[in-house]
Write a structure and sequence with these properties.
With about 100 residues, the protein is an alpha+beta fold. The protein has one domain. It is about 45% helix and about 10% strand. It is built from three helices and two strands, in the order ααββα.
Length: about 100
């Protein structure tokens, strides 16, 4: 009978070196903080407590196309998409937040 190789703790991370794992983990923590902040400040109703998978399917993965008019870029979102109203309301709430001094 052949022995089963033990999984080390470093095999669950994408890198082997401790410094690379630390940087990767810091990036994951920053992404989590941004997601939690966006949920708390910009979203309303049950979406404030939703899991990231639900947010991806309803808010973040929106069908849109970038359009350049004059000197500005705009994102045109299809109004028939189920999350268009949610994303528009979240963007208006984000713009209404007080600016840092």
């Amino acid at each position: 009978m052949t022995p089963v190789p033990r999984r080390t703790s470093s095999s669950t991370f994408p890198f082997g070196a401790f410094a690379a794992i630390a940087v990767w983990l810091l990036g994951v923590q920053r992404a989590h903080d941004l997601l939690a902040g966006a949920q708390a400040c910009c979203l309303e109703g049950p979406l404030t407590r939703s899991e990231p998978k639900r947010l991806r399917s309803t808010v973040w993965h929106c069908p849109g196309r970038p359009v350049h008019t004059g000197r500005r870029w705009h994102l045109r979102i299809d109004r028939r998409w189920m999350g268009a109203r949610l994303l528009g309301a979240a963007f208006h709430r984000w713009q209404a937040l007080p600016r840092a001094a």
